[in-house]
Specification:
It comes from Spongiivirga citrea. There is one protein chain. The chain contains four helices and 13 strands. It is α+β, with helices and mostly antiparallel strands and about 240 residues long. The protein folds into two domains: about 80 residues, no CATH class; about 100 residues. Strands 1, 2, 3, 4, 5, 6, 7, 8, 9, 10, 11, 12 and 13 form a 13-stranded antiparallel β-sheet that branches. The protein starts with a helix and ends with a strand. The longest helix has 20 residues.
Length: about 240
């Protein structure tokens, strides 16, 4: 009786192996997007993100990030200690103010990086990280077709590797997904992996707005020594249209 059961067990094992191999990078990404943005609302995102950033030996930085994706309008107000800055990018035009003052001298402009290049960088930063994993569908993103199973900080994940066209970016990114829910739990990037540089970011808790699940708390560390960089907390999201 035992001998007869062996071929069946082998067949069952083979079937499970094939099932596991069926999860391609495309399917994993689609499942994660279905978890975070089941109604496909990200492209119409119009809200203000209220974010508190805690860093070692620095005062808390409070940010209000204005994102109107359909109209391509970005605004960022930051308050840290006694300094309040506001920058905006709309229709290719940038503006900047420092404690309410818009006429700045060259020293102030340099110190606070009150230029359009910096504002564009902030726009890309916030729309990319809060738009994950949906942003991995953007043109210029190259997803490795292989899904890797990896243990990271004592937990098992399904991992996607992403690189980018040269005109989009040069960093190498890894995205870690919960193997059961497909929620995005960690992301990690390298500028030069051979040097183990770059950072990893742990995502905990979620805040749901307009049926989109956003990471509430992100904790940042260096790859090379696990050094703590900071924690940003998404305090609330305010719908622009309400």
């Amino acid at each position: 009786m035992l001998k007869k059961s062996i071929p069946f067990l082998l067949l069952l094992f083979a079937f499970k192996t094939i099932q596991g191999q069926e999860l391609t990078a495309t399917k994993l990404l689609d499942r994660s997007i279905a978890y975070h943005d089941p109604e496909g609302n990200w492209k119409q995102f119009q809200s203000i993100l209220h974010i508190n950033l805690e860093m070692p030996d620095r005062p808390t930085r409070k940010s209000e990030v204005y994102l109107n994706l359909p109209k391509q309008v970005f605004g960022l107000k930051t308050i840290q200690d006694t300094i309040t800055t506001y920058r905006k990018l709309e229709n290719g035009k940038c503006s900047f103010s420092l404690n309410g003052k818009t006429e700045l001298d060259s020293t102030e402009i340099k110190k606070h990086r009150a230029d359009c290049e910096r504002t564009t960088m902030y726009r890309n930063y916030y729309t990319y990280l809060y738009g994950l994993p949906m942003k991995l569908k953007d043109p210029g993103t190259i997803i490795d077709p292989k899904v890797e199973k990896r243990e990271f900080k004592g937990k098992e994940y399904l991992v996607l590797r992403a690189t980018y066209d040269k005109n989009v970016g040069t960093d190498e990114w890894y995205f870690y997904f919960d193997p059961e829910t497909y929620a995005l739990k960690v992301y990690q990037f390298y500028k030069d992996k051979t040097k183990n540089d770059g950072e990893y970011i742990l995502l905990t808790d979620e805040l749901e707005t307009n049926e989109i699940k956003l990471p509430k708390t992100r904790v940042w560390y260096y790859n090379n020594n696990d050094g703590y960089l900071g924690t940003d907390d998404l305090e609330k999201v305010v719908d622009i249209n309400k």
